[in-house]
Amino acid sequence: MVKDVRRRTGRYEEDRRGSRLAEVEALASPRRAETSLAIAGIVTGLGYECVNAALVTEDGRTVLRVMIDSLGGIDLGDCEKVSRVVERFLDNDAAGELGGRYYLEVSSPGVERPLFTPADYERFRGREARLRTHEPVEGRKTHVGFIRASDSTSVTLETERGTATIAFETVARASLVFRGLESRRPEKKRGPTKQDVKQENKANKEHEEEH
């Protein structure tokens, strides 16, 4: 096994070389689902929140992406810690489940945290989110608004155009919106009003009478 550990946008990766790549579609198998649940349990046992664990195809390669979070935030050391434990689990208990060659990538969700499950939308009710749908919903594929309600099948956003209810089955990807670094527009300086001028003249007159 050849290991390539490097930091790329806060991510920790391992290049695992072996037999032929497994088809990503095989993730639907019950054993693959069990592997994902087991990884989530490992992450939780280490004291982190498992935001997501999924096998995806990216730039022609297979990536096992594990996303973790904690109240104090995530740094490279946290990613390395989780990666070592997950690696041991895959080598010992799930050696054949992911095919041969894949990348193990452990990262934090970042400030624009992805939303994956109905529970995520309920948890972040009141926050601003950005959703991208597979097909146009109410004439557009991108929807930005505040999460006002959600259930097991859909989420309702309050957007600039009004409210929009979007079924989860139509959502391609979704995340929170971070606007903490946006600059505020400076307020325009207003000129003196008639009342301001009147008060200033009155004060000047009183000053002259005293002297």
Please outline what is shown here.
The protein folds into two domains: 101 residues, 2-Layer Sandwich (GMP Synthetase, Chain A, domain 3), CATH 3.30.300.70; 59 residues, SH3 type barrels.
SSE blueprint:
Layout: E1 7-8, E2 11-16, H1 30-45, E3 49-58, E4 61-69, H2 76-93, E5 102-107, H3 118-123, E6 128-137, E7 140-150, E8 154-159, E9 162-167, E10 171-176, H4 194-210
Parallel strand pairs: 4-5
Antiparallel strand pairs: 1-2, 2-5, 3-4, 6-7, 6-10, 7-8, 8-9
Give your account of this protein's structure:
With 211 residues, this protein is of the alpha+beta class. It has two domains: 7-107, 2-Layer Sandwich (GMP Synthetase, Chain A, domain 3), CATH 3.30.300; 118-176, Roll (SH3 type barrels). It contains four helices and ten strands; from the N terminus they run E-E-H-E-E-H-E-H-E-E-E-E-E-H. It has helices spanning 30-45, 76-93, 118-123, 194-210; strands spanning 7-8, 11-16, 49-58, 61-69, 102-107, 128-137, 140-150, 154-159, 162-167, 171-176. The strands form two sheets. The protein has a five-stranded mixed sheet with strand order 1-2-5-4-3. It has a five-stranded antiparallel sheet with strand order 9-8-7-6-10. A hairpin with a 2-residue loop joins strand 1 and strand 2 (11-16). It is extended, with a radius of gyration of 27 Å. 20% of the residues are buried.
